[in-house]
């Protein structure tokens, strides 16, 4: 998934000024430095969130009698088969998730924020990002092994095609979306607490305007990935013990969730509403630009319930396109920058960085 992929340019509206940096779904140039490699090591290992996650996992294994081997390899595969399975899952994600995006994206309109006269900031992939993506790909694969083992053997999941019903099929699929987001939205909000944010979720918010699809979606601290997948596991059990659960509903939920996460991190204006499901790329871009809003992924009802929902704003003033000239295109637009950004650096160097913190004393 971290290979270079074809660039996709969202269509620009007629007569709008040309953009110097249109959204791209490829990784682009990889920046590797000793600083980013050291950062990857420190944030992955010398991190209290990582230590806590490891301690909890170890405690749960002791309680259940599971071994580390059974955690990583519940099917008991040989090493060659395990590696082959990893590669197969990677290729499936490239073909199904990103492949679908590559095919559909050029036919979709761009988000309003991506067609203004001023280019949006794009974080360049570095060694830390690559380390996170590699670790997260392994976490995803282990989860795929665990969930497939559950679907194959657990009596709580219905597998026979003739046993598919309205309750354990369409209703269960809808409930998986709702329950999963019901659990995830509060977790996501908790990751924005000051004591937690710097250790886990801050990395994901380096990109204020995500555009690389799966690459930007999966570019998060592995602790965050593990926590979200654990809630997915809980949601599967909750739905199975309430409405009943057919394996088809679980697979459909996986597909929709993967595509939703991918599109949420592109610059394309995808919106979908049905039966209380309110999915919009606009909502998630708003979260990246205004981090204390829109914590849910697909069911914005939970944000409305928490009082954290915010309607989309492009950040492009109506008169900006008409007034665009080479002289003023380099001027920072405060509405298009996150609150933590330093507009002076953005104007001078064309990149976004945090404001310098005042020194104590």
Task: Quickly list its features.
single chain; about 350 residues; mainly alpha; two-stranded antiparallel sheet; about 0% strand; disordered N terminus
Structure notes:
This protein has 361 residues and is mostly helical. Helix content is 49%, strand content 2%. The protein has 13 helices and 2 strands; from the N terminus they run H-H-H-H-H-H-H-H-H-H-E-E-H-H-H. It has helices spanning 34-44, 48-64, 68-72, 79-104, 127-153, 167-190, 194-197, 214-218, 222-240, 247-264, 281-289, 301-306, 343-349, and strands at residues 271-274, 277-280. The chain has a two-stranded antiparallel sheet with strand order 1-2. Strand 1 and strand 2 form a beta hairpin. Helix 6 packs antiparallel against helix 9 and helix 6 packs across helix 10 (247-264). The chain is globular and about 60 Å long. The termini are far apart.
Write the layout of secondary structure elements.
Layout: H1 34-44, H2 48-64, H3 68-72, H4 79-104, H5 127-153, H6 167-190, H7 194-197, H8 214-218, H9 222-240, H10 247-264, E1 271-274, E2 277-280, H11 281-289, H12 301-306, H13 343-349
Antiparallel strand pairs: 1-2
Summed over residues and divided by their number, the pLDDT gives a mean of 82
Largest sheet: 2 strands, antiparallel
Structural class designation: mainly alpha
Order of helices and strands: HHHHHHHHHHEEHHH
Strand order of the largest sheet: 1-2
Silhouette: globular
């Amino acid at each position: 998934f971290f290979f270079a992929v074809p660039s996709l340019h969202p269509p620009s509206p007629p007569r709008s000024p040309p953009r110097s940096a249109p959204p791209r779904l490829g990784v682009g140039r990889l920046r590797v430095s000793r600083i980013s490699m050291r950062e990857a090591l420190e944030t992955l290992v010398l991190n209290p969130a990582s230590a806590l996650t490891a301690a909890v996992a170890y405690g749960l294994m002791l309680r259940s009698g599971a071994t580390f081997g059974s955690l990583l390899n519940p099917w008991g595969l040989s090493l060659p088969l395990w590696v082959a399975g990893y590669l197969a899952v990677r290729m499936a994600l490239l073909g199904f998730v990103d492949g679908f995006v590559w095919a559909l994206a050029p036919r979709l309109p761009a988000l309003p924020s991506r067609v203004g006269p001023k280019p949006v900031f794009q974080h360049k992939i570095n060694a830390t990002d690559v380390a996170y993506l590699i670790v997260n790909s392994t976490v995803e694969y282990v989860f795929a092994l665990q969930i497939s083992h559950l679907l194959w053997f657990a009596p709580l999941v219905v597998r026979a095609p003739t046993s598919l019903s309205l309750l354990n099929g369409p209703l269960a699929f809808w409930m998986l979306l709702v329950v999963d987001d019901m659990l995830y939205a509060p977790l996501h909000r908790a990751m924005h607490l000051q004591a937690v944010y710097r250790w886990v979720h801050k990395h994901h918010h380096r990109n204020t305007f995500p555009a690389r699809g799966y690459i930007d979606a999966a570019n998060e601290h592995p602790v965050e990935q593990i926590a979200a997948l654990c809630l997915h596991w809980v949601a599967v059990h909750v739905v199975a013990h309430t409405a009943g659960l057919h394996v088809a509903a679980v697979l459909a939920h996986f597909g929709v969730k993967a595509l939703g996460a991918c599109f949420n991190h592109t610059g394309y204006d995808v919106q979908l509403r049905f039966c209380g499901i309110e999915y919009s790329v606009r909502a998630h871009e708003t979260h990246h630009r205004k981090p204390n809003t829109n914590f849910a992924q697909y069911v914005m009802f939970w944000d409305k319930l928490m009082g954290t929902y915010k309607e989309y704003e492009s950040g492009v003033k109506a008169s900006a396109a008409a007034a665009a000239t080479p002289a003023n295109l380099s001027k920072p637009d405060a509405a298009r920058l996150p609150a933590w950004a330093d507009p002076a650096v953005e104007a001078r160097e064309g990149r976004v960085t945090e404001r310098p913190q005042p020194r104590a004393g």
